[in-house]
Design goal:
388 residues, alpha+beta, 2 domains, elongated
Amino acid sequence: MQLLFSYSWRNVFKRRMTLILTVTGVALVVFVFSAVRMLSHGLNRTLVDTGHDGNVTIIRRAAQTEVSSILPRSMGNIVKTDVGIARDSADRPLVTGELLVLISQPKRGSGESGNVPVRGTTEISFILRPEVKLIEGRLPRPGTAEIMAGAKLARNFQGCGVGETVRFGARDWEVVGVFEANGAGFESELWGDYDQFADAFERPIYSSLTARLATPEEFAAMKDRLENDPRLTVEIDREKEYYAKQSRFTRTYITVLGSIISFIFGFGAIFGAMITMYAAVANRTTEIGTLRALGFSRLTVLLTFLAESLTIALLGGVLGVVVAYFLRFFEVSTTNWDTFSELAFSFEISPSIILEALVFVVIMGLLGGFLPAARAASMRIVNSLRAR
């Protein structure tokens, strides 16, 4: 058996041009397959990381997103009295009411407009989200027309860098700082003082409430109390779960479309591998007859050619994954169709994506090599030896 695998390995590299073309085709398929998975994973990770494990998000019942949610300030006062909410050293309830509005802003380079989320925040907002770190400039001063921009937003949109100006709500707002949030969706937002935004947009309401649980175990009881309180019309989710839901449509669209493209390309790669292996069988008819004459069984010949097909597929698969790995250094900006806002995120690779790609490759190798291998194994010894 070792002799046969050595024989297969040697023949893989015997026809270099055919090998290069086949490996390149498989690599392209695996690259597309991996890129789609990385894109979906990056989108999901960006939104799942948008939040804290101990926080809950409260929006109006059936609103689904902050953008369409309207909560009177009186509801915020009721929520602040709930016993399940944590308090700081000054005995303040760790609850913040925020306003989220979409504005149109031109992108850098192309000049095309995109929907940018503008979030009105409070002092408590920063306590609830310790991952938000200033990387340039300073924090906006409360009560002023100063704002700060997420790092991804500052890179991608005009007027969002430090020292630049954004106009919305019939006012000019100066960007005084840029922040990061561990790659979370907040990095695609503009943040400023809630009271200033409420006045500028003439919306003296909350889009959402974010609260810190006293203990993680409080969630179920708090959810039951608040959602069944006749004074409130709200629904509550853990913050990470809420933001994960915001990517469902976009993530599904990317995954389904990408999978269709991958499988179409995959069939092409399977036929390419099949043609390559049929050519190998045709060129090695005498060798196959010799192997059979030496006593090697049909099963052994079948496995030998399958091993050759798998080797070619795995070479292409590894190459495709390696090339796809470098996509993680690129950033994508697209519309999140669940919220209609612009969202920037990166390609993200994971061990499960690599495993899925390699399993996909093995399937292509088996499907592409089985029929040619079966043909080689079914050859009669006398006819094979007479072929030349």
